[in-house]
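Appendix B: complex inputs.
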Amino acid sequence: EVQLVESGGGFVQPGGSLRLSCAASGFTFSDYWMHWVRQAPGKGLVWVSYINTDGRDTNYADSVKGRFTISRDNAKNTLFLQMNSLRAEDTAVYYCARGWSATEGPAWWGLGTLVTVSS
Amino acid sequence: DVVMTQSPLSLPVTLGQPASISCRSSQSLEYSNGNTYLNWFQQRPGRSPRRLIYMVSNRDSGVPDRFSGSGSGTDFTLTISRVEAEDVGVYYCMQGTHWPMYTFGQGTKLEIK
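Resulting structure:
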């Protein structure tokens, strides 16, 4: 069974940092592109970042570029999102998702982890 | 960036009646290979999003056949032939054609009258 389990969310002050993880199981992790998508409380879905299968190609939404870094460890079947210089507007549930190709985008989603940025 | 615009944003429907959601993109979603990468997602209350339809009209495994997708170019539609209680939630369209940026519609909240 395909599973994506996010962790690392929590409460952080503005300007702080958090590192999210996404543990993958039930499929060959290294074959899939991976994404982070976020959803602010009561709002819609916003794509945040992707990483390709070997980790050499990444991209970010303008709102997080220069502050967030996506990475992956294919040996440990784990996706990461390092979030620095956090702002109140980064408060959201963060989902990891897999996709088969660049154009497919996020297709199968995890359960999400909540990040709250507040003083 | 490509903007995805859904309508309506709120959709009250009587059980057993059909429902349609429109999604329009600011640029054509036809890719250089001739395919169109437009997906539809369902998000039930308190749950993660689940993909229903990929590449305009292909149902994902396990998706009931009352869900169908259609459209081309910049205009797309998700249709539910007969709404059931379990269909309550928010529906999103999303484009992958113009990667490396992916964009979602604002979401359409389906509720039972």
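Residues 33 and 102 of chain A are 7 Å apart (CA to CA).
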